[in-house]
C-alpha cells in the first residue's frame, strides 16, 4: 500500500520589484522513510507488535512499582 508523500509549500513575497517565489520541498528521502516504515511496521503490528506492547507494559509497571516502593520507603522511614 503506497501512501502519498508529504510535501511542504512555502510562498514568499518580498517586494513588488521581485517576482513571487514558491518553494516546494518533499518530505524525508524515500529510502530513509521506507526503512523506518519497515521497522515500525515490523515492531508495531502482528504477533511481534503485540509482544512488544505487552513487554513494554510489564516493564513500565515494574518501573512505577519500584519508584513507588522506594518513595514510600523514604517517606515512611522511622527516625
Automatic annotation (TrEMBL):
Keywords: Membrane, Transmembrane, Transmembrane helix. GO terms for molecular function: protein homodimerization activity. GO terms for cellular component: cell surface; plasma membrane. Signal peptide: none annotated. InterPro entries: SMIM1. The chain crosses the membrane at residues 50-75. The keyword Transcription regulation does not apply. The keyword Membrane applies. PANTHER family: SMALL INTEGRAL MEMBRANE PROTEIN 1 (PTHR38503:SF1). This is Small integral membrane protein 1. It comes from Bos taurus (Bovine).
Amino acid at each position: 500500500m503506497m501512501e502519498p508523500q508529504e510535501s511542504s509549500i512555502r510562498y514568499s513575497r518580498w517586494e513588488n520589484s521581485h517576482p513571487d517565489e514558491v518553494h516546494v520541498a518533499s518530505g524525508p528521502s524515500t529510502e530513509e522513510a521506507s526503512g523506518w516504515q519497515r521497522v515500525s511496521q515490523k515492531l508495531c503490528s502482528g504477533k511481534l507488535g503485540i509482544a512488544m506492547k505487552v513487554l513494554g507494559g510489564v516493564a513500565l509497571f515494574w518501573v512505577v512499582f519500584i519508584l513507588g516502593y522506594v518513595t514510600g520507603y523514604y517517606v515512611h522511614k522511622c527516625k
